[in-house]
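pasting for ref. prot 1 ->
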Amino acid sequence: FDDPQQLVRANKAWEDLSACTELLECHVPDPKKSETWPIILALTHRAVWAYRQRGGTPARLRTALRQYILVDKELRGVLGQWWGEKAKRSNKDLPWGTAFCLLIEFRKECPDTWPFAGQRYRGFALGAWCNYQRSRRHWSGRRRLHEWQRKKLDSIGFPWEMREWRWYVMYAILKRFRVQHPDRWPAFAEMFEGKHIGHWCNSQRQARRWRQLDTQKVHLLTQLGFPWNPHADEWESMFRLLLKYRKKFPTQWPEHDKKFHGKWLGLWCISQRQYKKKGILDPEHVSRLDAIGFPWDPYAARWHFLFDLLKEFRIENPDRWPDRDEVYRGEHLGQWCQNQRNMRRTTRRYELREETIQRLRLLDSIGFPWSLDVQFVLDMCSLLASFREEYPHRWPKREEVYRGKNLGDWLRRQRDAKKKGKLKKEIDTKLKAMGAL
């Protein structure tokens, strides 16, 4: 070389290229057989040249090359799997600047999140590295986090308290949920945007109950209209729905197997009765339900309603009782009467409750016919009286049908029983009064 400086630069370049070759041979299994070996050498030599231009020293050339190889996308794509496997085995030896560059690339790809514990990124345990930096912030001595490192992390908004950052992320998700669903709040197990927003809302209520939620966070959620006691809000909505039901159907209460405006109002009423029976229903709720006449025992209320209906039936039809299949004002009154007879016949006297005994006395007070035979005789006597009013000059002929009843055959059987002395006294008295015997 004519110029001594050219000789010096050539010697440095040769030393740098030798160092590059030695470093890359550690990561490429067989460099002589690799087709990309010349490309790797060229790219690495470019990295060395850039490092020299920044004024780097040969003593730290190896560290600089490691960092450049991991960050440079083109070179990393050439090396491929070799460097990734090497990085998995040497996470502790990875320079701080290299990991910081990886963190920046992670944030560019995922701007809405930060690495969580155990997360790997391009073969590097980036989540564990972030947690390690948070721990170093409180340490002292050689392993402490340096001031320039802390400033670099602060410059990209690094979350030193992961819980705080996650809280504000979930708060933003909750606001977006309310924009899409302004008429409701997340259910307990509901997910939104891949997050368990329902579980998070429930944890906020528990934290506030145990006084573990920050005042500022409570204020933010309250401004959003967050329901701190969702059960109370749900009770109010169901109570208003019950008032609408009673306004539409003033003579009845919700049944357990029917919906009203898309809500299981009957099941809600059943749950209120169960809560009151267990003594866990709010006294204020009890008083409000009592104010609208809520039936705590629906079976008793139903019985008294049908009993009053039976009395109205008797006022309109004093000469008869409901038939077995008779429907009166939309209620199966005949079947209800038959149920009362079955209950009295199948239940022993000493097994009756006081409430049941009072019901039997009420039925006896209006002359309720406990036997269907007596009821049938009374109906046939009334039918015979109607026949005589319509045909006063004659009696029903044998096998004659009147108003759907075989009145002639029934009268013949009563006369035969009279001859044999088997006719009951009550029937004998009625038929003699009518002149049928």
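and prot 2 ->
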Amino acid sequence: MTPPSEKANRERGSKPFSLKRQAGNRPIKMRILIVGEGQQTEPNYFRYLKEEHVVRERYAITVKGAHGISQDAVVKETIEFKRRGDYDEVWCILDVEGPSKADNLTAAYELADKNNISLWLSNPSIEVWFLLHLVKQGRPYLDGDSAEKELKKHWSAHFRQDYNKADDGIYMRLRKFIGSAVANAEWVLETHHQATSSRACNSSTDLYRLISRLMPDGLPGNEPDRLKNGAIAPDFKLGDQNGDLVQMSSLRGKTVVLFFHPTIKERASIAEVSSFQSANNNIDRGKVVILGVSPDSITILQESIVKDSLSFLLSDVDHIVGKAYGIWNENTTNGKVHPTMERVTFVIDPAGVLVHTFRDVDVQQHADQVLRLLIEKNLLSKG
């Protein structure tokens, strides 16, 4: 017999959310708590996913990580999180792990049913969901370690670096493959396992249903490459020229001038950064933050600082942020790939909303042009 919460999960996953209305026909955002069974992997993924514009305009999502060493312990921690907050729905992301954890998982389902918590499973682990972004397969795995080993192989081939469970950029790396992941996961569960529960189907995952609920109007991989004014600026975390981490979301409350350029080795980029350096010395840094992003390594940025007295530069060596903002291109000519970062500047208001984009950049005049825009939009005081 199918456990009640598994049936409820499937039924909830097949229905779109209905949004309540208030005066003025404005939707009230549904408040959802998502709890991952780990402190890093699941929370890191969903903290970035919840910032997608298609998600933010419908839902107010809180993401937390649990410390539990078993599935039922994670649900107990989720119950405590629920008690402390005010949520319309509470979701718990769990790994099945293997037969040895069957009793713990049964206890987790019983606790979830009693406390109106939805469980979303990956069997044997969330690495199966990550794998389905990169490859269509339904082979079983002995345990989570086996799934992780398979993921590492495909991860290295796609991203030219090792998979790291604590990687803060997992979501942004996988973002453009979400459409494939949803289709592949549905194929595995609905066809390969005849639509039975993920609890009993190794390997499979419920997360494609969760993603489809959060993004009923379209997945990131189906969106236009270029950001539009009015969109929420994608969050990111990059190292600066001093090796310190800068996170976009931590700058809320300030206007951000985010300019991308191909490389600090170019004279045009040096001229552009120098002009922004002069502007940076004459603004209220408590209100406006200027950041320059390039695919250069931190070492190269540091060498440029010593040579040219440049600052406020961020290193996007993996091109994750460039891709998220739609300005990283890989053009092919005569069979050769020519990757480049476009010279584009985004102006982001204190609420994190993109208010203006400069694409035709004159590096000599650009900083003054940006400052005039900030004044016009009351984002920078003339005094």
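The chain has 14 helices and 16 strands.
The CA atoms of residues 259 and 345 lie 4 Å apart.
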